[in-house]
Amino acid sequence: MRMHEPLSPTTPATFQPALQVADAQAAYWLAQVTLRLRREVCWLWRQHGLLAGAADGNGGLLPPIADPLQTTLDLARFDSDKQIFFASDETALWLTRQLQMPPANGTGEAPPGGGFTWAAAALDLAPAERFVLALALAGVSDSAAGSVFAACQNDATRTRPTLALAQRLG
């Protein structure tokens, strides 16, 4: 896929490409989670000075775990730098544009009971709540996401998503 092409319905919504998501709303929100995690990893590479090495073959390594206190203090300190990076780095900008894609329209039929779309409608979930639901779903359905969760949470033992991660990705 070229950098300027929008996501297609066949683009995987998760890190695990073999994971097929039939529910269009679930696929959309899982893709939102995956794209935001990818963008956060891109920022962490930049923040840790590894982005320049990516072209030289950093082996796709996830960003190293940093001092937790310093990382927390740097959230506010580097927020404007992060937003500028998201708007100017080619990969981060592409990911940001993908995040702006609207969700697929429903078929107009009532969704089958028990699925993501049904639960979101039955609970009248707002977009932020749908995102958190998808983040939790990604944590139990996408076997490849654990190391990315850990890297984004700056803790090798946190291989499941948290509400703090949802706030960071929001």
Structure description:
Helix 1 packs antiparallel against helix 5, helix 1 crosses helix 7 and helix 4 crosses helix 5. The two termini are 26 Å apart. The longest helix is centred in the first third of the chain and has 24 residues. This protein has nine helices and no strands. The protein is globular. It is an all-alpha fold. Helix content is 55%, strand content 0%. Among the domains are: 55 residues, no CATH class; 47 residues, no CATH class.
Low-confidence parts, pLDDT < 50 over ≥5 residues? 1-6, 54-58
Question: What series of H and E elements makes up the topology?
Answer: HHHHHHHHH
Share of helical residues: 55-70%
Q: Measured on Cα atoms, how large is the radius of gyration? A: 16 Å
**Helix segment tally:** 9
Main sheet summary: none
